[in-house]
Amino acid sequence: MSYPELLVDRVKLQHNVKTLLAMAAPSGLQIHFVTKCICGWRPIVEAMNEAGADYFADSRVENLANIQDIGLSRMMVRIPMQSQAMDTVRYSDLSLNSDLSVIESLSDAALALERT
């Protein structure tokens, strides 16, 4: 029995990234490409970055850590646990939050890591 396999056509992926960016540009939109389904797998993220993608997003801190040196911006797309505050600040540039206690934990972590 073999396991499922994901085959990615790099040329088609890069074409799709360029197409999306071209569609968004006239409106001044920036697209954060979500890497959750690929667990921040570097070869795919690097291919997307080569095609012009500079903004990436994920719901897992571990995936953002995998791509910390690629692109201009990394966004956390879910509310992190308080225990993940330091890593959230360390590996993401943007995190949208509504829970005051999480925001306070992120603020404390940002101060400790000297990030604003």
Main sheet properties: 4 strands, parallel
Residue share in β-strands: 5-15%
Our Rg estimate from Cα atoms comes to 16 Å
Helix- and strand-based class? alpha/beta
* Average pLDDT level: 94
CATH class: Alpha Beta
- SSE ordering: HEHEHEHEH
Helicity range: 40-55%
What is the assigned CATH homologous superfamily?
Answer: Alanine racemase
Structural domain count:
1
CATH topology: TIM Barrel
CATH architecture assignment: Alpha-Beta Barrel
Across the major sheet, the strand order is: 1-2-3-4
As residue ranges, the low-confidence spans are: none
Say how many strands there are.
4
Helical run tally: 5
What general outline do the C-alpha atoms trace?
A: globular
First-to-last CA distance: 50 Å
Can I get a quick summary?
A 4-stranded parallel sheet has the order 1-2-3-4. The chain has helices spanning 10-24, 42-50, 61-66, 85-91, 100-112; strands at 32-34, 55-58, 73-76, 94-95. By secondary structure, the chain is α/β, with parallel strands linked by helices.
